[in-house]
Design goal:
about 425 residues, Rossmann fold, 4-stranded parallel β-sheet, about 20% strand, 6-stranded mixed β-sheet, alpha/beta, elongated
Length: about 425
């Protein structure tokens, strides 16, 4: 049971080598969407180092309670899977615990759904303690109603009474253990989140402007933060390469500082429990001064990616934040791609994180946005108050500094939230 608790869900998916993927096209879907989602699922499964040997798209008129697809389609898929010697069937939809059990009973093959694939990827990629705890919790919550799938030895255990009566079932024992671990994980998360909250408060007390980079997974967010800051954030051509928030400092024109945070990529049909699980990452979008929304202009579905990201931001209550839309990978874009992007977001910035083209325009836009939240100010600071000068240098945008007989003259911008601190030294505020 210990291994099951540590590694749920117990799908054996990592040991599978040949996968049959089944896309589901419902009557409510626009034309082509199911095929696009199936292509996305293919990339997800391949990121688990599982070979995709075949994909099949099924038209679904009405969901079947037993297997989702109906008996005829289910038999067809099982026959195909055995013919091509697949050891894993992946359904591009959500299966109920009962549907999943029915599939595996009928086929004798491991069967998982889109959510379980994403759970496994997140488990592979999480790095920080909080992310590891969050994904463990999400997997536990996912697996709890599926325990009978992993455990079939449901004979009653011998009771401890004098008469040797029946005790609880193995299933009841397993559920209790999983619930106990869920409770432990939640308690650990409270401690970790308090620590993160303290760190954030320290940062807010020194309010350097902040920006969060958001967007669809694999749009090039990590590559962009690397190009802007010279950092070495993991940037791979795979879905969900970044799961943990990464913050780096960007020095803009005039020595203006900006903290830039990379966040987890969004995806269509991202399980809601995972949005909740990675709230720690996504919270950065809520506290940031503005957002940088990155889109891959070469992706044929960037309009849908745009809508998906805005949808998640709406869930987070961050959709009304000031936002800069950036179309990345223009070095590989066609004229048609660029024209579609301009129609979608006329005021967007077009750049290539790979070549550096357009980065200066983004940096300039950031300077403009910061100026909107910073007050233009002239100050005269006594010579003995060099602590004020040092603080202004750390927080603000220094345009001019001059040592005078009556003090240190500074012209620049500082956060309006700090106006009370600098007020005694202000000569002029515009």
């Amino acid at each position: 049971m210990a291994d099951f608790l540590d590694n749920t869900p117990s799908t054996e998916s990592k040991r599978c080598e040949r996968a049959l993927l089944v896309g589901v096209h419902t009557q409510t879907m626009p034309p082509g969407e199911a095929q696009e989602l199936l292509g996305e699922l293919t990339e997800l499964v391949e990121n688990l180092q599982i070979g995709v040997v075949h994909t099949e798209l099924i038209n679904l008129r009405e969901p079947n309670p037993a297997t989702l697809l109906g008996s005829g389609k289910t038999d067809q898929i099982i026959t195909l899977a055995k013919h091509i010697e697949a050891d894993l069937i992946v359904i591009d939809d959500s299966l109920s615990p009962a549907q999943q059990r029915n599939w595996e009973k009928l086929s004798g093959i491991a069967v998982i759904d889109r959510e379980e694939v994403i759970l496994d990827i997140f488990a592979d990629r999480a790095q920080t303690r909080e992310a590891v705890l969050q994904i463990a919790l999400a997997r536990m919550q996912y697996s709890l109603p599926r325990l009978t799938r992993a455990w079939t030895h449901l004979s009653r255990q011998r009771g401890k009474g004098k008469m040797g009566g029946e005790g609880e079932t193995q299933l009841e024992q397993d559920r209790r253990q999983v619930n106990d671990r869920i409770s432990r994980l939640k308690r650990e998360l409270v401690v970790v989140q308090k620590q993160r909250g303290v760190q954030r408060q320290k940062r807010l007390r020194v309010p350097v402007p902040t920006a969060s980079i958001v967007g669809y997974t694999n749009a090039g967010k990590s590559s962009l933060i690397n190009a802007l800051t010279g950092a070495h954030v993991l940037a791979e051509d795979k879905l969900f390469a970044t799961l943990d928030p990464t913050t780096r400092q960007l020095i803009l024109r005039g020595n203006q500082k900006l903290l830039v945070t990379d966040t987890v990529g969004f995806i269509r049909r991202l399980p809601h429990r995972l949005v909740e699980a990675f709230k720690a990452t996504l919270e950065e979008t809520i506290v940031a001064d503005f957002l940088i929304h990155v889109l891959d202009v070469t992706n044929p579905n960037f309009e849908k990616h745009h809508a998906t990201t805005l949808g998640v931001l709406t869930e987070l209550g961050a959709v009304d934040k000031t936002m800069v839309t950036v179309f990345n990978k223009i070095d590989a874009a066609s004229p048609a791609d660029l024209q579609r992007a301009k129609q979608l977001e006329p005021g967007a910035i077009f750049l290539s994180a790979k070549t550096g083209e357009g980065l200066a325009a983004l940096e300039e836009r950031c300077v403009e946005l910061i100026a909107d939240t910073f007050g233009a100010t002239e100050l005269l600071i006594p010579h003995e108050r060099y602590d004020v000068v040092a603080r202004l240098h750390s927080l603000g945008h220094i345009q001019e500094q001059e040592h005078r007989d009556d003090g240190i003259f500074i012209r620049g911008r500082f956060p309006l939230s700090q106006a009370g601190f600098f007020e005694p030294f202000v000569l002029q505020v515009s």
